[in-house]
């Protein structure tokens, strides 16, 4: 082989090696991104994502911390707080008198002595010694007319349809245990049998729930009408499985009313058929999902979602701007609450300008820390840029900043949110 041929051979091998290195570099980059994605997925829980607390498992994360600032108050009830301690009844069901039998000083017999009028009461609240169902028998009698001799029989009340049946209170308890306390059918049958000695079948429970469903048609219609006329409405949806298939549960709520709707779809087909959002004209608070934005009402974004996402970006990706953004939102919320406590209806233009400037600065810092890679963001399966989680969050905070800060401009939104927290559950 001539020197020229050897040189050409080396050039070819060098080109092949460069191509292999380029291919391996791309593979390494791809694997690093995959590892980061998997690590991020494993590190997500209810405090830094939209995952429910039930998915956290038994491992307690040390990273969870409250965003509330210390008030300096001691734990427990504060002075002036109305407690909920057990109070004595003015009309006890039974009274047991305890009388002394001998004098504690000289041991004289006191059994025949009358008790003094003053006494010290102590009460014990206990379940009845025997829990049993109260049975009411309805009897219909007949009467004979003295004029025409016709025998007329009385009619049973409309609610009494069978020879023997459970009353509305018992049926309501069974439905409550299944639909609210979420007990399995077999457990409810076992519980009612243990307490009331009544053998109940799961089929009877199914019939009770079906009956309750039919009776709630009018109340549900009234609730939906009230929700469409509400000033502020919170909207959300979550997945559930029915016989192994993915379905969706849609919720719309105010301070006192909540409507749940089950549907096979998640998007506009479901919300249109449910019929609340299409005619709603107030403020809809939600997580920014595009399906909600298609409705012609005022929109506000739920910052509880943003705080969880910011916690993820700060704790897992170590981006400092996210922690500062969290502080910004919390500080702004506290300032709004202080202004509301002073019966003010809005923040001053100077304070709003200050927070908006901080807002813009942090958006700029976040975008600088999440600039597109060389060649742009990679495309997903549908050809759209597959941006990182921080970049998606920044785009939402930037493009929908008015919806994010709506609580600072509309104090009625804050008032609703604060009052709502007082309701248990």
UniProtKB/TrEMBL annotation:
Basic residues biased stretches: 60-72
Composition bias type Polar residues, residue spans: 43-53
Keyword DNA-binding listed: no
Entry keyword annotation includes Transmembrane helix: no
Domain Transposase IS66 central: 165-409
Pfam families: DDE_Tnp_IS66, DUF6444
Superkingdom of source: Bacteria
Region (Disordered): 39-91, 371-392
Keywords attached to this entry: Plasmid
Domain DUF6444: 8-85
The name this protein goes by in its record: IS66 family transposase
Species in which this protein is naturally found: Candidatus Chlorohelix allophototropha
């Amino acid at each position: 082989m001539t020197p020229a041929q050897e040189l050409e051979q080396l050039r070819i091998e060098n080109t092949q090696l460069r191509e292999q290195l380029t291919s391996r570099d791309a593979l390494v980059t791809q694997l690093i991104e995959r590892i980061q994605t998997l690590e991020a997925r494993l590190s997500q829980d209810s405090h830094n994502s939209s995952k429910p607390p039930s998915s956290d498992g038994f491992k307690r994360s040390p990273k969870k911390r409250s965003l509330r600032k210390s008030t300096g108050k001691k734990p427990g009830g504060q002075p002036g707080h109305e407690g909920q301690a057990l109070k004595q009844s003015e009309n006890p069901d039974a009274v047991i008198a305890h009388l002394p039998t001998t004098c504690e000083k000289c041991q004289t017999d006191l059994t025949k002595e009358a008790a003094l009028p003053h006494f010290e009461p102590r009460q014990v609240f206990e379940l009845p010694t025997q829990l049993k169902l109260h049975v009411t028998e309805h009897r219909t009698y007949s009467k004979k007319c003295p004029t025409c001799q016709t025998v007329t029989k009385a009619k049973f009340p409309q609610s009494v349809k069978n020879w023997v049946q459970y009353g509305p209170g018992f049926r309501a308890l069974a439905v409550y245990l299944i639909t609210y306390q979420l007990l399995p059918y077999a457990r409810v049958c076992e519980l009612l049998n243990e307490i009331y000695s009544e053998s109940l079948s799961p089929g009877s429970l199914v019939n009770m729930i079906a009956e309750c469903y039919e009776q709630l048609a009018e109340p549900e219609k009234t609730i939906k009408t009230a929700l469409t006329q509400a000033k502020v409405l919170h909207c959300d949806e979550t997945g559930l499985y029915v016989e192994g298939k993915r379905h969706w549960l849609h919720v719309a709520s105010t301070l006192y009313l909540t409507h749940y709707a089950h549907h096979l779809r998640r998007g506009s087909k479901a919300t249109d058929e449910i019929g609340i959002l299409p005619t709603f004209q107030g403020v809809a608070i939600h997580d920014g999902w595009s399906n909600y934005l298609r409705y012609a009402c005022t929109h506000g974004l739920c910052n509880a979602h943003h705080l969880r996402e910011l916690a993820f970006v700060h704790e897992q990706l170590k981006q400092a701007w996210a922690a500062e953004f969290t502080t910004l939102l919390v500080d702004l919320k506290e300032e709004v609450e202080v202004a509301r406590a002073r019966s003010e209806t809005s923040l001053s233009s100077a304070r709003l300008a200050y927070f908006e400037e901080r807002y813009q600065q942090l958006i700029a810092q976040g975008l600088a820390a999440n600039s597109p890679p060389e060649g742009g963001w990679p495309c997903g399966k549908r050809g759209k840029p597959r941006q990182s989680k921080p970049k998606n969050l920044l785009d939402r905070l930037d493009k929908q900043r008015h919806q994010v800060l709506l609580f600072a401009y509309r104090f009625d939104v804050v008032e609703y949110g604060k009052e709502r927290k007082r309701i248990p559950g």
